[in-house]
From TrEMBL, chain A:
Protein name from the UniProt record: Carboxypeptidase O
Active-site positions on this chain: 360 (proton donor/acceptor)
Gene Ontology CC terms, in alphabetical order: apical plasma membrane; extracellular space; side of membrane
Location(s), subcellular: Apical cell membrane
Alphabetical list of InterPro entries matching this protein: CARBOXYPEPT_ZN_1, M14A-like_propep, M14A_act_pep, Peptidase_M14
Automatic annotation (TrEMBL), chain B:
InterPro entries: CYSTATIN_LXN, Cystatin_sf, Latexin
Organism the protein comes from: Pelecanoides urinatrix (Common diving petrel)
Family listed: Belongs to the protease inhibitor I47 (latexin) family.
Pfam families: LXN
One GO cellular component, as annotated: extracellular space
Keyword DNA-binding: no
Record keywords, A-Z: Protease inhibitor, Repeat
Cystatin LXN-type domain segment(s): 1-54, 74-177
Gene3D superfamilies reported in the protein's UniProt record: 3.10.450.10
Protein name from the UniProt record: LXN protein
GO molecular function per UniProt: metalloendopeptidase inhibitor activity
């Protein structure tokens, strides 16, 4: 469809235009009625696509000059639509991985992913949040007669770190799209099972969409509902409450009323404890800062396998940098960042999981937690 | 360590132009954190090796844009929840960034790491002289405590005279809601 701009010069031209509008039922944008068309006055008409040629020919025949005001009305309409989420609510063939999605859509995405990849993916119940929402993880597992070691990855333990759940979703998509064609991935899946928890702190994530973009903790009520939220990454049973925490609910690093006081923490901890003899690697994804952090945060004493941990992390950082030049710092949290106890990564290592890492994704502070969507793809690609 | 005075750090850094990643300039600096009284801003001495880009043209475009507004500028949530900043708001965003740098400097210790997280609200204040004045409510993110701290700052700007923070005050946590 096009919109034409015409300034009729004579009364004959006006008559012809009025005739055209009424016989072809053209859409007058200005003026509204054919009887208000006057010589010397602006005329804007929308011409449906199939009639464009005919109308232009007719104008030419009658020596009526025109200009094309809008060459493609649909394009303009599409551009002015609010942030496209409504167009891509179809999942996942239409799922837009380069945009941030609210929890409702992530739940739908998980269901769809399992449906379209049922030979590889199963969705499992993990537990419930404090506000009684269900926590699900996805298991990506190639059928085989041998028991495989497990890599666990959770995202979104801190509500405001939106790039983190975006990464988990991206990761799943990448694996599923490429496991047949990419030899690395297919070898991976022959020997390892992947367990992915796309959003750990569901209540907090929803709260950051609806009420406070920079919310971090979960939504557990304290002090008679006058204060909310425990920092789930200070709530695990790893030197709980010792350092880098607050006992005050008003703080962003409030460690809760006791180790594993939060249902979200318990849901994850119980599961990992059960499977721990098979879990090779525990990954937890955060932002921002661009770090690959190794144990521990609660002490500067190095873990027993620190050389191996560092070696693997350094290789990962190098590979990451190879993609877009993004540099990540590698090392124990207590040395390169700050001290903190009760972190999930420390806890995973302490119960015997040999490889335990926290990834702090892009960036280094320019956008911080509010990373623009055009950085989702490069961040995810390099981290992959 | 400087006995009885504080801790001095010697830094070699590279400054990178946010708007032109290939444009870099070397810089050396000395930062002295004072012992004891944490209410004094750290001393900073620096030398820039080379010149910073001339920004006269962009400055004047922005200046004239604001001067020609019929009503005083008002805006909120820059960037928005998804990280987007509209092109018209980019200079307002950059101005806040520079001004917040001053506030951060004045409030930094060896145990803090501040970043500007978001502009919650900005309002232009009418002035009779040539300066532009903006009243900002910003959110600072402090890395160690993970706190989000609302901060009010009044910022003056002029193409030839640069940025000045004439007033700033930390706000109670719920001031931004």
């Amino acid at each position: 469809d096009q919109v034409l701009h015409i300034v009729p010069e004579t009364f004959q031209q006006v008559q012809h235009l009025q005739h055209l509008c009424s016989t072809l039922l053209l859409d007058l944008w200005k003026p509204l009625l054919p009887e208000d068309i006057w010589a010397g006055e602006d005329l804007h008409i929308r011409v449906p696509a199939p009639l464009v040629e005919e109308v232009k020919d007719s104008l030419d025949q009658h020596m009526i000059s025109y200009k094309v005001l809008i060459p493609d009305v649909q394009e303009l309409v599409d551009q002015s639509m609010p942030r496209e989420r409504s167009r891509h609510r179809r999942v996942p063939e239409g799922y837009v991985y380069t945009q941030y999605h609210p929890m409702e859509e992530i739940y739908q995405w998980m269901t769809q992913i399992q449906k379209s990849n049922s030979e590889l993916v199963t969705q499992h119940y993990l537990g419930k949040t404090i506000e009684n929402r269900t926590m699900y993880y996805l298991q990506i597992s190639q059928p085989s007669d041998k028991t495989k070691k497990i890599i666990w990855m959770d995202c979104g333990i801190h509500a405001r770190e939106w790039i983190s759940p975006a990464f988990c979703q991206w990761f799943v998509k990448e694996i599923l799209q490429n496991y047949k064609s990419d030899p690395k991935i297919s070898r991976f899946l022959q020997n390892l099972d992947l367990y992915i928890l796309p959003v750990l702190n569901i209540d907090g994530y929803i709260y950051s969409w609806e009420k406070d973009r920079l919310w971090r903790k979960n939504r557990s009520p304290h002090m008679n509902g006058t204060c909310y939220g425990t920092d789930l990454n200070r709530n695990f049973n790893s030197s709980w409450g010792n350092i880098g925490v607050s006992y005050n609910c008003n703080s962003e690093i409030f460690c809760g009323s006791g180790p594993e006081s939060e249902p979200e923490t318990r849901a994850v901890a119980q599961f990992i404890k059960r499977k721990k003899s098979d879990i090779l690697c525990y990954l937890t994804i955060h932002s921002y800062g661009q770090y690959i952090l190794t144990p521990y945060g609660s002490t500067t004493k190095p873990p027993s396998n620190s050389e191996e941990l560092m070696h693997v992390a350094e290789k990962a950082a190098a590979a990451l940098m190879g993609k877009y030049g993004t540099s990540y710092e590698v090392g124990p949290t207590s040395l390169i960042l700050y001290s903190n106890s009760g972190s999930s990564r420390d806890w995973a290592h302490m119960i015997g999981i040999p490889f335990s890492y926290t990834f702090e994704l892009r960036d280094t502070g320019t956008h911080g937690f509010v990373l623009p969507p055009d950085q989702i793809q490069p961040t995810c690609e390099e981290t992959m | 360590d400087i006995d009885d005075i504080g801790h001095k750090y010697h830094l070699e850094l590279v400054l990178e132009d946010v708007l032109d990643k290939d444009s870099t300039v070397n810089c050396t600096a000395e930062v002295l954190y004072h012992l004891g009284n944490k209410n004094i801003a750290p001393d900073v001495q620096f030398t820039i090796e080379g010149e910073l880009k001339n920004t006269d043209e962009a400055d004047n475009v922005f200046y004239n844009q604001i001067k020609s507004l019929e009503k005083e500028l008002v805006a909120e949530n820059i960037p928005d929840s998804h990280g987007n900043v509209s092109p018209e708001m980019e200079p307002i965003h950059l101005l806040a960034w520079v001004a917040s740098g001053y506030v951060i400097w004045q409030n930094s210790t060896e145990n803090t790491k501040f970043q500007l997280a978001q502009i919650k609200h900005v309002k232009q204040v009418k002035r009779s002289d040539e300066y532009l004045e903006f009243d900002y409510m910003i959110l600072l993110h402090e890395m160690v405590s993970q706190e989000i701290i609302p901060w009010q700052m009044t910022v003056l700007w002029h193409p030839q005279h640069g940025v000045q923070v004439t007033q700033d005050s930390r706000q109670p946590k719920h001031a931004s809601e």
